[in-house]
Amino acid sequence: MKFLLTDFSLKRPWWILGFVVILTGILAAQFPRVTFDNDPENMLSKDEHVRMFHHRVKQKFNLYDFVIVGIVNEKHADGVFNVGTLGRIHDLTGQLLQLRRTEEGLLSTIRSAAQSGERLVLDLTPDSRWQRGLNVAFRHDPNGLFDSEGTSAIIGRELISPSVVDSIQQAEFGSLKLEYLMEQPPGTREEALAIRENAMSNPLYRGTLVSEDEKAICVYIPITEKTFSYNVAALVKALTHDWPQDDQVYITGLPVAEDTFGVEMLVQMATSAPLAGLAIFVLLLIFFRRLSLIIAPMIVAVVSVVCTMGLLIGLGFDVHIMSSMIAIFLMPIAVADSVHILSEFFDVYSRFETKRDAVRHVMGHLFTPMLYTSLTTIAGFASLGLTPIPPVRVFGLHVAFGVGLAWVLTMTLIPAYIMLFVSDRALSKVAPTHVMGIGESPVVRKGTLMGGLEWLGGVSYRYWRIVLAVTVLVMGLSVYGISKIRVNDNPVKWFTSSHPIRVADEVLNAHFGGTYTAYLTFEAARAEASTCAEKARAIGDAAKKRFGRVMPAATAEFLAVLESHKQLYANVTSSDLRKCFLSLVNAATEIDDRAFASWNALADEINYLEADGLTHERLLDAIGAVEAATDRDRKILITRLQEARRLVGLELLEYALKICDEFTALSFREFAFEMQAELTAPLFKQPVILRYVEALQQHLSANAVVGKSSSAVDALKKAAYELSYVAPPADAERDERNGYDKRNRDQFAVPDTVSAVAQVFTQLEGMKKKDSLFHLVTKDYQEANVWVQLKSGDNRDMEAVVRDVRTYMLSHPPPVELNVGWAGLTYLNVVWQDKMVKGMLSSLISSFIVVLVMMAVLFRSPVYGLLSMIPLSVTIALIYGLIGLVGKDYDMPVAVLSALTLGLSVDFSIHFLQRARELQKQTGSWQEASRQMFKEPAMAISRNAITISIGFTPLLLAPLVPYRTVGFFLATIMAVSWAATLFILPALITALERFLFRSMDKMPEEAQLK
Amino acid sequence: MRKMKSVSSPRGGEVRVGSPLSAVCLCVILMLTSFVMARDVALTAGEVVEKANQAAYYAAKDGLADVAMTITDASGNVRKREFRVLRFTMPNGKDQKFYVYFTSPADVRRMAYLVWKNVDTDDDRWLWLPALSLVKRIAPGDKRSSFVGSDFVYEDVSGRGINEDKHELIEQTEESYVLKSTPRNEAAVEFSYYSIVIDAKTFLPRKAEYYDKNGKLYRRVEAKKVDIIEGHPTVTESVASDLKSGSKTVNKFKNIKYDVGLTERIFSERFLRRPPREAAR
Fold first, then answer.
1. Per CATH, which fold does B46-274 belong to?
2. How far apart are CA A619 and CA A646, in angstroms?
């Protein structure tokens, strides 16, 4: 059975070769169809609740992903607010807004805002030939900034820049100016400072658009798709490359970080995988010193990688951050089995007459352990298929496929290759030196390696108690370390600390409220809070308070009407509420007509009088002529006007109208409308709710991570302040001036009534930049969005903010029950990370069980099964213990490593235990067997460990941290599991010698692996 | 269909052209003009613009109408506002005054805007917020900002100066004239040009389309319905569409009256605080 594949390959090597070539050809042909996906958002599946919520929020509030461009000037005395820098920002804004695509597929924009006729043609193709080559290979168009319909990736109407954001400011004659913050670039220092003044006094812009230290301005470029952000960043770099040194331009934001990561990841794929291949190749060359021999494992590796990637692309999966690492993972694993075969083949070749017999011997020997090591590796990777994270699933299953393929290739292609391309003559030269371990330098090194191994074996055998004691100690320490593990991630930190994105992130977060965005949304938990009866009671109470004392009769009439309405509309749904109020208004109008007709007629007549030249006499004449007025009211008015005998013209008219107002203001009709406004107000027009949000924001501002939060409340307060601002007279004394200041400051608040709130909001709706208010509140004012800027994108910081809000809302319950939701990329990262950690844990447990069962089956013994799991358990515990102790964050790459550690490091145990049992049987004594064990078997294990470790080392040179992490940890895993296997297993076997081998003696013959 | 050569307007006069916007906007309906019959004589672009201006803005001496405004955004959210507009033409026949009085929704009831359209200088504008007892003057200079959050802009109310654009007659048919208007000061506006279709019989602008700086159509204003009211062709339904955001505003005009005998006096700050009976009743 186990010779089936091998014999066929030995017999028909050409068939095998042909088949491999065809398969590789077919799958390699899939490569041009490759698509990439750099979006960490896809770590969550599309129908994931939080992701759908995130998109709903984005849609509801018209939110987009931003490329953040920070312009910092530390040199100029006025910081960034100098004529030159502001002018350049104004030009940059114009250039971004007027981007076009030329016929040739290049970009064109205006030279500057002043010379809009002249156009600038830009080509973002990188200078380096290598980069250009990669762009071609990965089909990345550096000038791609337009969708298929020619629409710019930059959403112009949503751009946030001083030149295109609304500003409310006081202008001459107490008027209000509503225009863009920087309508025109400043011509003088005074104008520049005026822009600063306006920006700094706007709570929506301070800390967001302009830094509080006045040294920096941020331009937020909204983009249609996150995947445009790398090119947008390149565009900004191209447009600002000739700016003076003093104006530092930084580009950041999660989309840029993520997209840049994606692009640089491609570079990594193109460099790390070949480098890993090269490292393995050189290593094999040192071990076997025969090119013709080691080409075979390299072919196995390359074919496995090509076929796996081809399959992935062919199946229509995107190449994601995870799957970009497939080649790097697969390469060392794929050569491992071949290394075993070759190693063994060399050792035994001299004992056989033909290659064929030697291969058969080796295969017979290694078939089962190789099958099981491959199966366990497959199990480790395939267990990733159980995680809830789609890219990880794709990665795990494809690597599993690749490992399986590598196994088949090792079983077939290696024998076929030996038959076809390795000459007997070449073998006869190489083999003896290898086995004897004498001669040239590499062999001498091998000799020392072997010597070391033998000494090691002695230590583990003789000092097994100490070895086991140390193991227990290490395990204890590891468990402590694991308890200290900090789960955290931040895509920006995937870059090394000197990377421009990390630098920009640091600089801009030092100046601004924070470049990490999270959206905190609120909506009513229940649709309708108060019943019709409650509303009627509220109206009744308010009516008694306002009218009860002055006009008891009319009030009684109104209350009667109200009572009848209450009964009529007792069970109304909210759609009938309007009807209910309409009917109430009509009834109120009738009451008004009876109660106030006279005063209304008087006021109306006076209002229409010509003010110029109005005298007391003329006024009295006019009053006398009002037919609808009653004598009583006329008398009241005339008597009251006695006090104003000396007034004339407009002053007199206003005086008379004020008297009328005292009566006409008591309108039941207007009262009914007012009540309708108050009692049917949407959530976020109600002052009490707005003040709650205000208080929550205030609380948040104390959180060290939260740099700033912005909401509709901030916009409302600013607008209310500017609308009701009264400038102190020019000649005002200090006290008077202070009085004005205080009065104005008091207006920087949520207005007291629903109508006042609504009327100020209406002004904000009608700004130059239409709908910018609706990023913060929905158009029906039922839902609100608080834009929270965080100074850190670390998931644990985001989680702390979420907790902070929850705690606050528990201790300060809102006036109305609110549903709280979080969205934003920073928050999404928290969610998928949480899933990742949990998913990885479950996949680790499941693969542990699967491997344990496999081992028990392989060794026909649960005890041996358990034994084989010990080195890898120690390895995993130690690795994660170290992560905890060192304080390295448990992030995405670390999480992925856990499952596959298992699959990789169990290999050593399999080889070790399997050979140990064989040798024990041959020699009849564990002492002797263990000495033998530390010759060739230990040698093969060591070679394998070194090959895989070295194979991953090119990753250490990567500029992207996750690759470095993977490289470092895989090398460490290899080293630790190698040590764990060679120390702990012999020590344990020594301790359990009698028990283990007695049980083996009882086993039936065929169960003993041969 | 007879194609005409492009003729740029020779007129440098001070008469304001009813921009396409203005034509369809709230004030449009208040204008009276004599029913101009299509003539066989070819008109210059300047003459067409002039007539359109008259048709759209300078109808009867005064007028009023109730406007039901419905703003519908791309996701179907609807906002409704109701207001009454009063219009008064000054004795010089050029300047005009507008009074906009809100009646619904309840929370913005009695809110009012006052606009003095000054043909030769900047417009004057005031705002009355009853819930805050506040009259505020608004500085000139933002005529292209949204009117109460709708897709109409303030310039739709006050009109756009004839001199601010160069007008070319692009096409003339039995039914309409098509003009292309390019701003003289491109930096002051967000469009690069607009095209306007003017009814050859009534000279009411029927459709205006605005193109952004990249030459892409982004805004459309249309007169959807025109009725003859008291003898005057009058827009009774107009629509402004923001093609970029997908938002759309429909204005429906009711209770249209011309020559109601408004006095200039009511277009003053005093009447902001105490609305005139023509607005409030």
1. outer membrane lipoprotein receptor (LolB), chain A (2.50.20)
2. 13
Residues of chain B neighbouring A751 (CB-CB closer than 8 A): 131-132
| Encoded amino acid at A500, one letter | P
Contacts of B128 in chain A (CB under 8 A): none
For residues B87 and B258, what is the distance between their CA atoms, to the nearest angstrom?
9
Other beta carbons within 10 Å of A177: 18
Task: Break chain B into its structural domains and give their ranges.
Answer: 46-274
Q: Residue B137 pairs with which residues in a beta bridge?
A: A175, B126
In tens, the pLDDT along A951-991 reads 777 788 887 888 888 888 888 888 888 888 888 888 888 88
- Gap from A371 CA to chain B (nearest CA, Å): 58
Helices (DSSP H) in A160-253: which residue ranges? 189-200, 229-240
pLDDT of residue B22: 44
Residue B69 near residue B82 (C-beta atoms within 8 A): yes
Residues A241 and A747: beta-carbon distance below 8 Å: no
Segment B73-90, tens digit of pLDDT: 988 889 999 999 999 999
pLDDT at B33 over 80: no
- Rounded to two decimals, the pTM is 0.85
What are the phi and psi torsion angles at A111 (to 5°)? -75, -45
Q: Identify the CA nearest to B254 among candidates B58, B64, B2.
A: B64
- Which of chain B's residues have a Cβ under 8 Å away from the Cβ of A780? 77, 79
Judge: B270–A753 Cβ closer than 8 Å, yes or no: no
With beta carbons under 8 A apart, name residues in chain A contacting B70. none
| Structural tokens at position B194 | 């607009």
Taking Cα atoms as reference points, which of A643, A671, A629, A637 lies closest to residue A657?
A637
pLDDT at A493 over 50: yes
Residue among A179, A676, A751 minimizing CB distance to B132: A751
Where residue B251 falls (left for φ over 0; alpha for ψ -120 to 50; beta otherwise) is beta
Query: How far does A593 lie from chain B, in Å, by closest CA?
Result: 13
Average pLDDT across chain A, whole number: 85
Q: Is there a contact between A431 and A349 (Cβ–Cβ < 8 Å)? A: yes
CB atoms closer than 10 angstroms to residue B201 = 15
Q: Which among B77, B109, B111 has CB closest to A673?
A: B109
Torsion angle of C-alpha atoms A313, A318, A320, A322, degrees rounded to 10: -50
Give the integer Cα–Cα distance in Å for B214 and B22: 24
Express each pLDDT in A805-818 by its tens digit: 999 999 999 999 99
**Contact indicator for A700, A804 with CB cutoff of 8 Å:** yes
Query: Helix, strand or coil for residue A337?
Result: helix
Over the range A380-395, which residues count as b (16 or more CB within 10 Å of their CB) and which as e?
bbbbbbbbbbbbbbbb
Q: Does A38 score more than 80 pLDDT?
A: no
Q: Is the pLDDT of residue B26 over 50?
A: no
**Which residues have a Cβ under 8 Å from the Cβ of A17 and sit 6 or more positions away?**
A413, A416, A417, A420
Q: What mean pLDDT comes out for the span A18-25?
A: 91
Residue A400, CB-side half-sphere exposure with 13 Å CA sphere: 21
Q: DSSP string covering A429-494, please?
A: HHHHHHHHT-SSHHHHHHHHHHHHHHHHHHHHHHTHHHHHHHHHHHHHHHHHHHHT--B---GGGG
Closest residue to B146, CB basis, from A654, A685, A767: A767
HSE value, Cβ hemisphere, 13 Å, CA-based, for A720: 25
Contact between A220 and A514 under an 8 Å Cβ cutoff? The reply is: no
CA distance B4 to chain A (A): 28
pLDDT score of A529: 54
**CA nearest B71 in A: which residue?**
A779
Q: Interior CA angle at B201 toward B196 and B204, to 5°?
A: 40
Predicted ipTM > 0.90: no
